[in-house]
């Protein structure tokens, strides 16, 4: 069932004392372009420079290849109820994302909406952004003071997008909503081919933009957690303020043995192995509600 606005939920639930962050939304400079807000959903446990670089890659691609103009960029850390191994509690993950945003000095905003409540599907998260920006705020301004509706789009690595072709992980109606109504920018990720990631999503090709990594960089949160467990330095893989925060709070010292024992050089294989051996327990689309979490695909 969709709401009158075409959202997949009738009403949004907000965490206590929640305010939508919008102080770094920008004015549209070129009125001939379509304003777009990029939303990256994920665990961010912890946030790395690669998560931050995704936005830079997308902004370059958009500026050179599309008729969009980026007016806002957001990280949306997932709820603790996602229950993925290595998922530190939302309080720390959001704090680290905020430190990374401050450190970058740019326009990145952290939306704690999904982090501090029950699990919310990505289709609902994108609806939440659309509602807050286009309905509550009334869109963004052009330099002439005219108000424009903003296009909300998902930003994700090719590993995440390839799960959209895995049976049982995403519901078809949510894919129709995410890829048909909103659209996605996909950042190439080592070990997860772009073509393979999108082969089964051809129906929505017009809304899927693929961005190659010109400098290969395979930093992942899993590897960072493994380094920390083994007492290895993670400086220059993530912002200094985040490294300091991890040290001060003694984070990622006691992750599960299974994760800690994984080979540092085999994250891709580790992902494949875990997704092929662990059954995906997500309920069929028709049964799922906004309060359920898909069993994490990497569990
Ligand atoms: N090195 C990378 N290249 C491209 N995309 C990336 C990279 N690292 C993370 N991403 C993307 O960032 C988003 C959030 O990722 P997530 O928080 O799961 O990070 P991760 O490093 O994959 O975490 P973990 O190692 O814990 O699985 C996802 O869309 C993911 O595909
Ligand atoms: O909405 C869904 O059905 C859905 C199915 C699988 C994954 N997701 C989202 O994709 C993100 C995956 O993050 P991660 O860290 O497991 O790569 C996270 O934000 C999940 O909420 C969402």
Automatic annotation (TrEMBL):
Domain Cytidyltransferase-like: 39-225
Residue numbers spanned by region Disordered: 261-299
Any one GO molecular function term: nicotinate-nucleotide adenylyltransferase activity
Location relative to the cell: Mitochondrion
Keyword Nucleotidyltransferase tagged: yes
InterPro entries, per database record: Cyt_trans-like (IPR004821), Euk_NMN_adenylyltrnsfrase (IPR051182), NadD/NMNAT (IPR005248), NMNAT_euk (IPR045094), Rossmann-like_a/b/a_fold (IPR014729)
Cofactor: Mg(2+)
Source species, domain of life: Eukaryota
Keyword Flavoprotein tagged: no
GO biological process assignments: NAD+ biosynthetic process
EC number: 2.7.7.1, 2.7.7.18
Pathway: Cofactor biosynthesis; NAD(+) biosynthesis; NAD(+) from nicotinamide D-ribonucleotide: step 1/1; Cofactor biosynthesis; NAD(+) biosynthesis; deamido-NAD(+) from nicotinate D-ribonucleotide: step 1/1
Family: Belongs to the eukaryotic NMN adenylyltransferase family.
Protein name per its UniProtKB record: Nicotinamide-nucleotide adenylyltransferase
Organism: Coprinopsis marcescibilis
Lineage of producing organism: Eukaryota, Fungi, Dikarya, Basidiomycota, Agaricomycotina
């Amino acid at each position: 069932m969709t709401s009158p606005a075409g959202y997949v939920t009738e009403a949004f639930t907000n965490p206590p004392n929640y305010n939508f962050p919008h102080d770094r939304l920008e004015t549209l400079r070129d009125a001939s372009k379509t304003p777009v807000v990029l939303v990256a959903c994920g665990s961010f446990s912890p946030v790395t420079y690669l998560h931050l670089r995704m936005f830079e890659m997308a902004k370059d691609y958009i500026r050179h290849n599309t008729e969009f103009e980026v007016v806002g960029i957001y990280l949306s850390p997932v709820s603790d109820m996602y229950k993925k191994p290595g998922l530190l509690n939302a309080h720390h993950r959001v704090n680290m994302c905020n430190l990374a945003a401050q450190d970058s000095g740019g326009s990145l905003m952290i939306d704690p909406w999904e982090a501090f409540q029950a699990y919310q599907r990505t289709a609902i998260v994108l609806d939440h952004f659309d509602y807050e920006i286009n309905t509550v705020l009334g869109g963004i301004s052009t330099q002439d003071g005219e108000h424009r509706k903003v296009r909300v789009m998902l930003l994700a690595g090719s590993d995440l997008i390839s799960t959209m072709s895995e049976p049982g992980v995403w519901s078809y109606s949510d894919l129709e909503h995410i890829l048909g109504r909103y659209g996605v920018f996909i950042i190439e990720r080592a070990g997860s081919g772009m073509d393979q990631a999108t082969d089964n999503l051809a129906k929505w090709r017009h809304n899927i933009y693929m961005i190659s990594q010109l400098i290969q960089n395979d930093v992942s949160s899993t590897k960072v957690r493994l380094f920390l467990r083994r007492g290895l330095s993670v400086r220059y893989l993530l912002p200094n303020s985040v490294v300091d925060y991890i040290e001060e709070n003694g984070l990622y010292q006691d992750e599960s043995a299974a994760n800690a024992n994984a080979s540092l050089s085999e994250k891709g294989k580790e992902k494949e192995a875990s997704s092929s051996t662990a059954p995906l327990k997500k309920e069929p689309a028709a049964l799922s509600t906004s309060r359920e979490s898909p069993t994490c695909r990497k569990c």
